[in-house]
Structures are given as C-alpha cells and as structure tokens.
Specification:
Length: 852
C-alpha cells in the first residue's frame, strides 16, 4: 500500500490488527531502532517487491523516524527444484539472506529438503519461522543478530536457518506455587535459628490455653462495675415492742383480721421507685421482658443472642422513663481485644512472638504450631447449611459458622422443639443429628474457645438481669413474699384465742371460788396473778415462735428495700453489659470470618485457570517446537518440601495480615476511605449494621479474596532461587516435556525437546547447510558451511525460550541457482562447445569480468 505521498500498512499489536500509516506511527511513538524486512519469494507465480519501492520505504523510515537506524533485510525464499529465478537477488546496502530450503529438529541433526511448492502457507510458515528468528521477533529474543552489523559488500548473500523452542511451564509453576503457598495439606513448619518447629499433637489444649490467656488479659474489659450496698443490721425486737405486737395481733385475731395485721406490719414501707420500674418494664415491653426472663420470643421460639441484644437496648431506654437519671452510653473500645485475638490466632499457626501475654506454643524446647489453620479459626466454606428450606423457614435459621457458639445453641434448641412436631419431626431430627456431627469438627478450635467465653459471659449477665428484675419485682410488692406467712396467721390467731379463753376461764373459776369463800381473797388474787403471768409468758412464746418467719420477712424486706436503688442502678449497668457483650459477640463473628479467610488463603486465591490443561499448537515446522512441561507430582511435592523449609520462618503470617489490613480501605471502596491512612481503625468497627466497615470488608473478601502481593513476593523469590543457585530443582521439575509430533502429543525428555537449540554448537564441529540452492561450483567451494551460530534465549521463572540462528559466509549471488545467470559469453568470440576459428593474438579481447 505504497502511494506517492504515503506508505500505509497493517499494525499487529497484542493480537489486534489495524490499518495505519508509517508516517502517523512515527508521530505517535518513540523508537530507538527499526528493522525493515522485504520478503522476496523465489517461487514461481509470486511477484517480488520492486527494489525501488523497498528502497523508498527504507529512506522514508530513516527520515520520518528522526534518523533512527534502519536495519534493512531481504529474505529470499528458495526451494529445492524450483525453476523460478530472480533478477537482482542481492541488493547493495541490504542484508541479503537466502532461507535455506530445509528443516531439522536441531543443529547437527539430520534434515530433509523443502521442495518447490505453489502452496503459500507451506512456504510461508517456514519463511515466517526463520524471519522471526533473524529479526528478533520470538519471545525471549531482545534484539536481532543483524543489529549494528554492516551489510556484506557487493552483490552477495548468505544462507540462513533458524531454530526455536518455547517451553510452557504454566501448569508446573502453578502446581508448585500451590504446593508451596497453599495450606490445604497443612501449615508449613516455620524455622527459627536454624531449628524447625513441630506440630502440636493436642490442638484443643493449645487453643484452650491461648483463649484462656486472651480472656485473662481482656475479659474484664467486657464487664462494667457493679454497686454493692452495705448489709442492713438485723433489728432486734424489744420486750415492749414484742408485747405491743402481740396485743395488736390478739386484737386483730379477736376481730378475725390476723392476715390484714400481718400484711400491714410486713409492708409498712413500699418502694415506689421499684414499683414504677417494674410496672413500666413489664407493662411497656412485655415481649422484651419475656426475652430476658423467660428466654422466649414473640413467636414462641427460643430466643437468640440477637433477640437478647435488642431486648437489652429497649429495656435500657425504658429506665429513663421510669425516673432514672439519663446517661450517655459510652461505646466499649475493644480494639486491643480484637488485635490480640487476631495475634493469638496467627501465633498458633506460625509460632511468631507478637504479644507477651500470648506466647507461642512451646512443647519441650521446641516451638509448635497447629497442623491446620482451621484449628485456629475455621475458614470460609466450613459452615453448616444442611437444613431443608421448609424447616429453615420454621426455625428462622438456615446456616451457621463453626465459631457461632450461641447460634449453634439456638439452632439446637429450635430443632429439638421442631422434632416434637408431627409434621417436622423427621427432618428436624435428621438436621439435629447432622448439626451435632458437624459441630464436633471445630469445637476444639481457638475461635470456638473464645466465642464460648464471650457467650458464657453474655448468658451470665443475662441471668444477672433476670435476678435484678426479680429483685425489683419483689421490692415493688410483698404479696408474693407474704403468701406463705399469711396462710399461717389464722392458725396462730386460733391459738391466741384458745389461750385467751383459757385465761378468762381460769380467772372466772377463781372469782367464783373466792365469791363462795372457797378461797381467801388474797389467795384468789395470787392465783389470778399467776394465771395472768403464765398466760402472758406462754402466749408471748407461742406468738414469737409463730411469727419468727414474719420477723425474718420484715428484716429481709428491710434489706430488700435498702438494696432497691442499688438494684435499679445495677440493672442499668447489667443491661449495658448485656448490650456490650452482644456487640462484642457480633464483632467476634466478623473478626473470625476475616481472620479465617486470611488464614485459609494468606497469599490470595489460587489461579485455577493456570492449572488447566496445556494447549498445543499443530502445523509448525520441524525447526520450531512449542512444548509444555509435564506435571510430575512426586517431583513437585519434593521441590515444594525443600522450598517451604527455607521460605517460612516464625511469624511468616505477619506480612499477609498487615497487607490485608493495609488494603482493606481500597478493597471496601469509598466507604473505606478513613482506613487508608489509619488501617488500625478497623479494630474499632462494629460487627454488624449498615455503618459497619467490617461487614463491607467481609463482603469484599468474599468477592475478591485476600491481597496476593505477599504471595507474589514469595513466589518471585522462589523463582529467583530455583533459576539461580538451586537450578537443580527447576531441572527436575521440567525434565519431561509434552510436544506435538506428527499431529500427536507425545512425551519426551527436556534434552530431546531442546535438541541443542539452547546452546551454541560444540567447538570444532562443522555444520553444513543443504546446498540444493547453490551451484555445483559453490558447493564444491564449501560455500554451504555454517560460519556463525548465534544462540539467544531467556528464562522467565520455569518457562524457557531458546533459539539458534545459523549463517553462512558471503556467497556471490551468481552462485545461487535462484539468481538469474549472466548470458554474456565470458570469452568473446568463443561459443561454448565450439572450436575457435582464429587463435591469433590479434583476435584476443580482454573480458569485462564479473560485475559486483
């Protein structure tokens, strides 16, 4: 597409094809060097580019690209037995190359000739392979052997052939990377001071000790203070007070109202504040009251920790309406708790020293790690969801994580209840059995141990709230406390009447006897006094013994009323502890999910596509081979074991964890802007809710996985190691190659695949080109000898690219059969094959000689 004013062409870049002019290309890019290749087909029926056109394009390139050097190459396609000839095979100022009509698997090996053909694909694919090697177009070739080399003088050309190999090691590399970085088959044993750690045999013990240490350090931060009232001294009832109470009771008994007397005495003082609190709580929020006290929700199902949290928040707000002072509720700062929780989980896996109070596991004199990361914190995909949809709708739970101990308890209670239903019994029992089997897998993990601690504290505070509400209820009304006492007042009143009647009868009899003069007056008075004293003593003793429970109740009532205000204030503290613990539990679930994800894939997600079956290319010439290293599991496993021993030191999880936190803001998106400058602020986030960044981070991790840069850094170090000082490892990994041979994929050794292409021929070995395109004179003169063998190549990780270019020395163009021979008689006046008619010196003419 050459016109008078422009040169247009097709640009191929990254597999895309587009039309472009060379002038516009010069204006949009910067180039240090340009290579111009003119393909000259010495094939019958194919026209060649006019030399004037190619010269014009070369000159345009030099002028348009700012005088950048232009390497000019003429690649002549020749075939054995071809009858076509070229006018001007060689052109001055150009690298004139004749593509040797042969193909072979490698230098020094047998070859077969390429014969004349009219199929453009047949001769084109061979020409393309050789031109790619000469021009530096193959992967692994950074330049061309012709760069900076001056063209041969005169009209001469050189034979050329090229070999190329590319070894795809994607599958082997992906498999090795997976074995080195994956924790599927267990965590690596980290090294420290040249010593390797060991695996913990009792993982449950290690997890429990770590959880206990964490709780010992931070457990008190989840509980607020409580107020304690001084015990009320027991008030002794004096004789006069006792007599007054006794005569009051006797009077009430005579009026048949002993119960009213006892109730009036016991409830002399009532707590109006307690009555207000209990009435408001029970009257305004009966469902929340039932959640806390009875453990039953509105739908009759056993309550979950979320129900408890909501109920605690509602009851706390109601206390303001009951006359209690309104206070700001300061959120609990548990940042250090979650930071240490994460550090403890990481330490169990990599034996790093992070927190003094949470040291790595020590077994004898050696550090120890858990065999599997899930024994620390179970990762994604380990949850339970084996519940039919119709059953899940009834119990309102469909899935659980292994560390959600309160959720598991709630699901067990609901499934047990559903198992008693005639319609749900079978699926509920089956699901319950599956739940219990699943629970056993992770119940000894570190996360479950910590979750159990938080859950036990939450249930303990819930029980405390129950007790406080009951205390306030008792302080509000004594009816329930008096029930047993009041039932005994009537019996005691009957005894009082009997004793009083006996006294009166005795006095009456004594009076009668005195009136009849059967007794002296003074004797009668003495008897009456004695009867009165005995009655008084006996009645007082019976009264005091009979009312002992009432007196105890009065003292207890006095203590209860004195503790009432303390109970109400402690109720607020307990409700806020309940809300704090519920919030901490939601944070615990979020952090467990995040830490479990990082532990499961600390180096990012594995690229499964890279481990797919290799794709092979058919139809390539013999001198070009594209192969794929065959994955050999024993070799990969052995190499991975060696590498893991050197790569992983104690504390190796620190970098992946810090990287995960540092990239959390970017991973979350605009909402995570505040974390970009202060990644540690993530520890202060709530566990759920619309404003929780933890919830957004979990979603982002589920979608994109953890940051893979730590894995890339480690893998880069591995590749540098196995392609440098430990190259023996890489050789063992790629020792077997799959390649295409005669339209079939076969396996061969690496050396057979390379066939010497990755190195220059041995010194002293003499290689030859096929001389089918040379004249007999040229062949006899040794023009087909290979004078230059130039290897090139590169290694990217385990992948290899190698090539070899071979050139002959300069050969005059008239020694090529493809060049049109000069028909002029080299000896004028003498026809070939005819006798000379005149041999006189006068008839001799000096020949002009060959033209160079």
């Amino acid at each position: 597409m050459v016109s008078r004013t422009s040169v247009n062409g097709l640009l191929v870049a990254d597999g895309d094809l587009q039309a472009i002019s060379l002038q516009s290309l010069a204006g949009t890019g910067s180039y240090d060097l340009l290579r111009l290749c003119v393909l000259v087909p010495g094939i019958a029926g194919h026209e060649q580019v006019d030399s004037a056109v190619s010269q014009r394009i070369a000159e345009m390139l030099e002028s348009s690209f700012g005088g950048r050097p232009v390497v000019r190459v003429r690649a002549v396609v020749a075939r054995s037995g071809e009858t076509a000839v070229l006018d001007g095979l060689a052109q001055g100022g150009w690298h004139n190359l004749v593509l040797s009509p042969e193909e072979a698997a490698g230098p020094g090996l047998g070859h077969h000739q390429l014969y004349a053909t009219n199929d453009p694909f047949d001769w084109g694919v061979h020409a393309a392979a050789t031109c790619a090697g000469v021009l530096g177009l193959w992967a692994g070739s950074s330049d061309s052997l012709l760069d900076g080399e001056a063209p041969l003088p005169g009209e001469s050309a050189r034979l050329v052939r090229a070999f190329y190999r590319t070894l795809d090691t994607t599958a082997v590399g992906a498999e090795l990377r997976h074995h080195v970085l994956s924790l599927d088959n267990g965590v690596p044993l980290p090294t420290y001071f040249g010593t390797s750690a060991i695996y913990v045999e009792d993982s449950g013990l290690a997890a429990r000790v770590m959880a206990d240490q964490l709780w010992e350090k931070h457990g008190r931060s989840l509980h607020g203070d409580r107020e304690h009232a001084a015990p009320q001294p027991v008030t002794a009832i004096g004789p006069w007070a006792a007599f007054k109470m006794m005569f009051g009771f006797i009077w009430a008994a005579l009026k048949n109202a002993p119960r009213s007397w006892a109730q009036r005495v016991a409830t002399r003082v009532k707590s109006e504040a307690a009555a207000a609190v209990h009435g408001l709580v029970f009257g305004s929020a009966p469902s929340q009251y039932a959640v806390i006290v009875d453990g039953v929700g509105r739908d009759g199902l056993p309550v979950s920790w979320l129900d408890v949290r909501d109920a605690a928040a509602t009851l706390d707000k109601l206390l303001d309406d009951a006359g209690m002072a309104r206070e700001h509720r300061a959120p609990a700062d548990l940042a250090s708790f979650w930071q240490d929780f994460a550090d403890g989980a990481l330490t169990l896996v990599d034996a790093g020293e992070r927190v003094t109070a949470l040291p790595p596991v020590q077994v004898g004199t050696q550090r120890a790690v858990l065999r599997h990361a899930s024994a620390s914190v179970p990762g994604p995909g380990s949850g339970f969801s084996d519940i039919p949809s119709h059953l899940a709708a009834v119990i309102e739970l469909d899935s659980l994580e292994p560390y959600d101990v309160l959720g598991i308890l709630s699901m067990e209670e609901r499934l047990q209840r559903a198992a008693g239903d005639a319609n749900l019994g079978i699926p509920a029992s089956t699901a319950l059995e599956a739940l219990r089997r699943w629970k056993l897998v992770s119940e000894e993990s570190y996360a479950v141990r910590v979750g159990t601690r938080i859950g036990q504290s939450l249930n303990s505070v819930r029980s405390e709230v129950q007790q406080l509400l009951n205390q306030i209820r008792r302080a509000a009304s004594a009816d329930d406390m008096l029930a047993g006492v009041l039932t005994r007042q009537k019996k005691l009143a009957l005894w009082m009447k009997i004793l009083l009647g006996g006294l009166l009868l005795g006095l009456l009899v004594t009076g009668v006897l005195v009136a009849r003069e059967n007794l002296q007056l003074w004797d009668g008075l003495g008897i009456c006094a004695g009867l009165a004293v005995v009655w008084l003593i006996v009645t007082l003793v019976i009264f005091m013994n009979g009312q002992r429970e009432l007196f105890q109740l009065m003292n207890a009532r006095s203590q209860l009323l004195s503790d009432d205000e303390i109970s109400r204030r402690n109720l607020r503290h307990a409700l806020r502890d309940l809300h704090r613990l519920s919030g901490a539990y939601s944070q615990f679930l979020a952090w467990s999910r995040i830490i479990g994800t990082v532990l499961a894939e600390p180096f990012g997600r594995s690229d499964d596509e890279a481990r797919t079956k290799a794709k092979f290319v058919h139809g390539l010439p013999l001198n070009v081979k594209v192969g794929a290293a065959l994955v050999q599991p024993p070799a990969v496993a052995a190499a991975a074991a060696q590498l893991r021993h050197d790569i992983f030191a104690v504390g190796w999880l620190t970098k992946p964890w810090e990287r995960a936190k540092a990239t959390a803001g970017d991973l979350i998106g605009p909402r995570g802007y505040e974390l970009t400058a202060h990644p540690e602020a993530i520890y202060r986030q709530s566990g759920d809710g619309e404003l929780s960044l933890l919830r957004l981070w979990i979603g982002a991790l589920d979608a994109a996985g953890t940051d893979s840069s730590p894995g890339r850094d480690i893998w880069a170090g591995v590749l540098k190691d196995i392609t440098g000082p430990r190259s023996a490892i890489s050789s063992g990994l790629v020792s077997t190659v799959s390649e295409v041979r005669d339209s079939a994929v076969v396996q061969t050794s690496l050396d057979a695949f390379m066939s010497g292409v990755d190195r220059a021929p041995d010194t002293g070995r003499l290689d030859h080109f096929d001389g089918a395109v040379l004249t007999d004179v040229a062949r006899n003169a040794g023009r087909a000898v290979v004078e230059h063998s130039v290897p090139f190549g590169s290694q990217t990780g385990l992948a290899r690219h190698a090539g070899l270019i071979q050139l002959s020395g300069g050969i005059p163009q008239h020694e090529f059969l493809v060049a049109r021979q000069d028909d002029r008689n080299p000896w004028p006046g003498h026809e070939p094959g005819a006798a000379s008619e005149d041999d006189s010196p006068d008839s001799f003419m000096m020949p002009e000689g060959p033209t160079f």
